[in-house]
């Protein structure tokens, strides 16, 4: 019986099968997570997604993310979230990010521990009232770039 040995050059493998920062398993230890929630900071940021340990001790600015959908899980505190409507005085603050002073119209809802909220990209949202500390994980899923459309964001 013959044994054939097959060798594969790494250069011949599709890029999706090669190790890189976006397709390796990542563990964020509990000490780092706890420290991140103490001040509210990102845990992981890649080109396709971000994970933040978010903290709010009071109301914030209205936000519109033009490409990121927010998926949030509340772990402590409560807050009134206003979604939809129109952001007041919205101005660009970074690439694909707008901030305003409030949201006019929209729907108000109270978020409490255990709630999950999904805010699609392009939807204005604002934490109008906060019972601190309000702690929540946010996974930001990045939408692929699309050609600009007339009247689009």
Protein model, in words:
By secondary structure, the protein is mainly beta. The chain has one helix and eleven strands; from the N terminus they run αβββββββββββ. It has one helix spanning 30-39, and strands at 41-45, 49-56, 62-65, 68-83, 86-88, 91-94, 97-100, 102-104, 107-111, 116-119, 125-142. The strands form three sheets. Strands 1, 2, 4, 9, 10 and 11 form a six-stranded antiparallel beta sheet that branches. It has a three-stranded antiparallel beta sheet with strand order 3-7-6, with no helix packed on it. A two-stranded antiparallel ribbon has the order 5-8. A hairpin with a 3-residue loop joins strand 1 (41-45) and strand 2. The longest helix is centred in the N-terminal third of the chain and has 10 residues, at 30-39.
Radius of gyration: 20 Å
Which stretches of 5+ consecutive residues score pLDDT under 50? 1-19, 148-153
How many β-strand runs?
11
The quaternary state of the protein chains shown equals: single chain
What does the main sheet amount to?
A: 6 strands, antiparallel
Question: Which range best describes the helical content: under 10%, 10-25%, 25-40%, 40-55%, 55-70% or over 70%?
Answer: under 10%
Please give the alpha-carbon distance between the first and last residues: 65 Å
Number of H- or I-type helical stretches: 1
Could you give the order of the helices and strands? HEEEEEEEEEEE
Structural class: mainly beta
Shape: globular
Features:
three-stranded antiparallel β-sheet; mainly beta; disordered C terminus; 11 strands
Describe what is shown at a glance.
This protein is mostly beta strands and 153 residues long.
